Amino acid sequence: MAKIIKVQKGTKDILPQEVEQWHRLEKNALEIFTRYGYKEIRTPIFEATELFARGVGDTTDIVNKEMYTFEKSDRSITLRPENTAGVVRSFIENGMSRLSAPVKLWYKGPMFRYERPQAGRQRQFHQVGVEMFGIKEPTADAEAIMLAVDYLKSLGLNDLEVEINSLGCPKCREEYKNKIKEVLKPEFDNLCEDCQSRYEKNPLRLLDCKVESCKEIFEKPEIKKVIQSDFICEECAQHYSKLKSYLDKLNINYTENKLLVRGLDYYNRTVFEIKSNNLGSQNAVCGGGRYDSLVRNLGGEDTPAVGWAMGMERLNSLLPDIDSHKLDAYVVSNSETEAFILTQELREKGVKVEFDLANKKFTKQLEKASKTANYALIIGEDEIKANKVSVKNLQTSEQVTVDRKDVINNINIG
Question: Could you tell me which residues come within 8 angstroms of residue 94 by beta carbon, excluding any fewer than 6 positions away?
Fold first, then answer.
């Protein structure tokens, strides 16, 4: 017997009984995002490696450790680890800057990162996300957060925590970076290897470290005082204050987290996460923020932007299982030809219906019908002679015999 080939570590099959839950995530996304004026965009699964190195940042764990990169025809290609860079590339390449602002786009699809699989996180995983281009005012930030909350609530998720922070602009952030380096210098040898590497390249990323020994260092009073300081300039402070004011008026409960920096280099000013207490330590279900310099950094015009993404596997892990939808009807007959014809007639009228392709015994067909459908449509010899069909409601056991042309009027189509 040939060796069985199994699914690769960090990937999984989405089986038929699970797909209905995915359809719910996608259906709600289309409905809620369309209500906010967003239009769907679908970008390639692989892009030039340079796009992510320049867009995501060459000091990030994603670029340094997690990308699936390969060479093809002397070109370096990478499976997308996230989709903001790809959407920005499309925004630039397709001249969307000429459109009236705001340009609102949403997406869904698979992403790829080589990391240790854990609850709600795989090496091939799926995200749903939004990007808004052209609005620098904090109204855009507030609407993006409101949209995320609305989408999660539409799925029945209410046990959520919204965390926000402001990273400031490049000018005021530079001073903050220097202060962090200064206060952490005596602790340099005690930092983890990744933080020691980030110390010079991007000290702000130190605050995103998940290593417990580093977290303890950041909690030391003299270090925490610097981290918690209000370093942002007046203009950035006003932007942040207005955002909080909008969130207050929209009745969005939030907390401020000075350690929240996000793991990508392109963010500036607003960053936010939405967390669920049902996911353990890795409890973020949504992450995003403002990235006003990314379009310019990737070769486009100077364009303010804000967006977020959610991991769909994590969302699924928070949702209760839903009952699989039953067929509207199941045709029961020992005449394959009559069953086949009636089945196809009803399918053409929008009915979800099947019949027994293997022509098993009548009782077996009824048993299958009771498990998979709301109605059994019975065609015995008497029904064939009279051109009628017996319609049995499998919930109530009520049964009536009707003309064949009237079958559809005697069943409820789901």
Answer: none
